[in-house]
Design goal:
about 450 residues, alpha+beta, Immunoglobulin-like, 3 domains, six-stranded antiparallel beta sheet, four-stranded mixed beta sheet
């Protein structure tokens, strides 16, 4: 009997020792895990701080080296999986970040932050990296793969231009910027498939048109899903004060994707008037009948290939070329009114004053004013520039919209050929898009535009 009691006691002690060992091991494991986790978090925070410092130094360093190009390759970003760079010197459409309210609110504010880090698709933090330059839509998204960020930097003198090095690191808009070699290949293919008549010129002339157009246009592409279909949307944005006459845009699609394009012409959407040509080899060409001097949107759909478009997306190519680049007005609206109270009747004269020295001038008698609306708000230091001709010595004045407040000094038109007058917005004038021009004699306006300081 005594032996049995001692045996049970020994078993109990052994069980207790095992339980205690398990508990102690668990505590040690949890404690050790927390220590490791804290160390990793501290290391990640240190790496993020180092990334911020290095990115600022590199971007600031290359900005002043005009046309110098460098690769920026940073490793050690831990749980960060996406980084947005936003050119906040431009008018960015903040609603494009509506799925991330923290970024949307910041972009829509006066904050200077222009880098936004995402971890597992959740906002992590933001900071100011220096002066960056990004074409329309003025923001880029970079994938961070295994803690690595890879991008290209180009010095622009006062800022640094950002680019994707490879499209596999892209998680948003792609800026369409073919090299001259790529452009020659696309143009040759277009002429082979469509003929010189469709393009409007031979290979050499078309390459020259591309070169001139590239300096005056910004192109970008984005893919989104509509059910199982891939929708490819392209933005065409002429640079400020430029008009593209007889613009053609060509999209070259990989052969493995082309058979999935929906042939319904109603799928080719846009904000302007254009013709669409589809070649099965595979090319799509949009031809704009009207001069393009504002943003245009075009799109096409690839059926049932949304999940598989990544591979195709990496090798999509595009090119734009216009027959002529015109200098056009930065005005959104231009109308004539009777001088008293903007009373009717009014006349739209934007078409007559849109281009400089195109042979068309608008006669405006002294009993009428010209009401203009600029695309952007003008402030101190900005200018209204007018080209005009008059038959007699004439005073011309710029007024704040529907007021008797003269803005800046009065200009004088002397009889003779077309001349230029500039009105600089003086200190103390409120920001505005709306202005009035009045002349005390008959004048003939040739061109009216605005320029930011």
């Amino acid at each position: 009997m005594l032996f049995k009691k001692e045996n049970k006691k020994a078993q109990f002690n052994s069980t207790l020792i095992v339980i205690l060992a398990v508990l102690i091991s668990g505590v040690v494991i949890i404690f050790g895990y927390n220590i490791i986790k804290d160390n990793i978090n501290r290391q990640c925070l240190t790496n993020l701080n180092l990334f911020e410092e290095k990115a600022k130094a590199v971007i600031d360093g290359i900005a002043h080296n005009i046309n110098s190009v460098e690769e920026f390759n940073y490793k050690g970003l831990c749980d960060v999986n996406m980084i947005y760079f936003v050119d906040k010197d431009k008018e960015v459409n903040a609603s494009e970040f509506n799925e991330t309210p923290e970024i949307m609110d910041d972009v829509d504010s006066d904050s200077k932050n222009n880098v936004f880090l995402m971890a597992d698709n959740e906002f992590r933090e933001s900071f100011y990296v220096g002066d960056i330059d990004i074409p329309s839509p003025y923001h880029l998204c970079f994938m961070v793969k295994k803690g690595r960020l890879l991008m290209m930097l180009e010095g622009k003198g006062v800022s640094t231009r950002l680019r994707h090095k490879e499209n596999m690191f892209n998680c948003g808009h792609t800026i369409i910027e073919p090299t001259m070699e790529e452009a020659r290949g696309i143009i040759k293919e277009v002429i082979t498939e469509l003929g010189e008549g469709e393009v409007g010129a031979g290979e050499v002339e078309t390459v020259q048109k591309f070169s001139e157009t590239e300096e005056n246009i910004e192109l970008s592409r984005e893919i989104s899903c509509s059910g199982k279909d891939a929708v490819i949307e392209i933005e065409i944005v002429p640079k400020e004060g430029k008009g593209l006459e007889e613009l053609k845009y060509v999209e070259v699609i990989p052969k493995e994707c082309v058979k999935f394009i929906l042939k319904d012409s109603n799928l080719f959407l846009g904000s302007g008037d254009f013709d669409v040509t589809i070649e099965a080899d595979p090319l799509i060409m949009w031809k704009f009948d009207d001069e393009v001097d504002e943003k245009e949107d075009i799109s096409y759909t690839i059926k049932g290939r949304c999940k598989k478009m990544t591979d195709c997306y990496k090798i999509l190519e595009g090119i734009g070329f216009a027959d002529k680049i015109n200098k056009v007005s930065n005005l959104k609206k231009a109308e004539t009114y009777r001088r008293v109270g903007h009373s009717k009747p009014k006349e739209n004269i934007k078409k007559e004053i849109k281009k400089m020295e195109d042979g068309v001038m608008k006669e405006v008698p002294s009993d009428r004013l010209v009401h203009i609306e600029t695309k952007d708000e003008l402030e101190e230091g900005d200018r209204i520039i007018i080209y005009l001709r008059c038959d007699s010595l004439t005073e011309v004045s710029l007024y704040e919209d529907e007021s008797n407040n003269v803005v800046g000094s009065v200009g004088h038109c002397t009889p003779g050929s077309i001349q230029s007058l500039q009105f600089t917005i003086p200190e103390g004038t409120e920001k505005s898009k709306k202005w009035d021009l009045k002349a005390d004699e008959l004048v003939y306006y040739d061109f009216i535009t605005s320029a930011e300081d």
